[in-house]
Amino acid sequence: MFNKKITIAIQSKGRLYEESKKLLSNSGISFRIIENRLLTRASNVNVDILQVRDDDIPSLVSNKVADLGIVGKNLLDEQLAGDKSLSVKEIINLGFSKCKLCFAKPKDSTTESLNNKIIASSYPNLVNQYLKQNKIKADVIKINGSVELTPYIGIADYICDLVSSGATLEANNLEATETLMESEAVLISSNDVDDTNFFDLVNRFKGVINAKDSKYVMLNCDESNIKKICSLLPGSESPTIIPLEQKNKFAIHALCKEPVFWETMEELKENGASSVLVLPVEKILN
Ligand code: PRT
Ligand code: ZN
Q1: Closest Cα to atom 39, ligand 1: which residue?
Q2: In whole angstroms, what is the distance from residue 147 CA to residue 79 CA?
Q3: N or C: which end of the chain has fewer CB within 10 A?
């Protein structure tokens, strides 16, 4: 497996670190990360893991020091908007570290639009691009941390920052106005690279991501309810229908590729399903 060495760059600590590590180990890569070490070699496959600051990942991938990298789409787009020489592409969305890049202003501010305002952000390139696209004239100041405090020390009218739970905005008496972009962790590679080298590894990543929301559902029902019950199974393609020993009784087994909520299970029951089992799925290989 992986004849040629694959180097993958991940964040060394921070919000992407734990999930990035989990994705690699769930994809069958065995490794033991030692803190503050730049490089970790997998013990079972031909993979090296580079642990760096997230800001350095796009250029390491662009320069082919790493074949693959895991970064937030927000950071990638900010760097792409500011550096035309960066040559990287997104391969897949990874489904974790979801957040939004939002404009926000103090709750008691009476301003109605971004026009002629001062906006503080760690994402000046994306903000300027957004202002240009929407023909808004405003000043952008780059602030690297504690952006949410800038309206209160009088240096900005608005901020543009990442929001996930909304607790930081709330704690600082700010309210979100518009969303510039939605973001999540993405897997990146260089634009001009032979991707057959890491095709199998990317397929494993896809298998882990697909399995995350998937459930294997098993239930029993009467013959007359089969059609209705199959239509209620979320994201299932072609369920398996097996006759039971008892006459007119069938078991339905299905891989549901969308979340199965309690509400769905209750609806299945109301439509004649019994013994409804919902099982986790670890990996899917399509
Ligand atoms: O040290 P290094 O440079 O590697 O890390 P970093 O400090 O630059 O980044 P880090 O670890 O803070 O974030 C890495 C990535 O996580 C970001 O680029 C995003 O893609 C993603 N992410 C997801 C977030 C958030 N959610 C998030 N909520 N990054 C930052 N925040 C901050 C936000 O800036 C604000 O201060 O959390 C606060 C808001 O959170 P809520 O929950 O209060 O709304
Ligand atoms: Zn960073």
Answers
A1: 163
A2: 19
A3: C
In the numeric block, which tokens belong to residue 40? 């970790």
Q: Ligand nearest 146 Cα, by number? A: 1
Q: Are 213 and 239 in contact (CB under 8 A)?
A: no
**pTM confidence score:** 0.90
Any atom of ligand 1 within 6 Å of the Cβ of 164: yes
Q: 179: CA distance to ligand 2 center in Å?
A: 21
Which residue is closest in CA terms to ligand 1's atom 34? Answer: 162
Helical segments of the chain, H only: 17-26, 57-62, 73-82, 124-133, 167-171, 199-213, 226-232, 262-270
Instruction: Give dist(CA 278, CA 156) in Å, integer.
Output: 51
Cα of 254 vs centre of ligand 1, distance in Å, is 37
Whose alpha carbon is nearest atom 20 of ligand 1? 72
> Which CATH code is given to the segment(s) 6-97+185-211?
3.40.190.10
What pLDDT, in 10s, does the model give residues 194-247?
889 899 999 999 999 999 889 999 999 999 999 999 999 988 889 999 999 999
Distance 51 CA to ligand 1 centre (A): 17
Could you give the residue range(s) of every CATH 3.30.70.120 domain in the chain?
Answer: 215-280
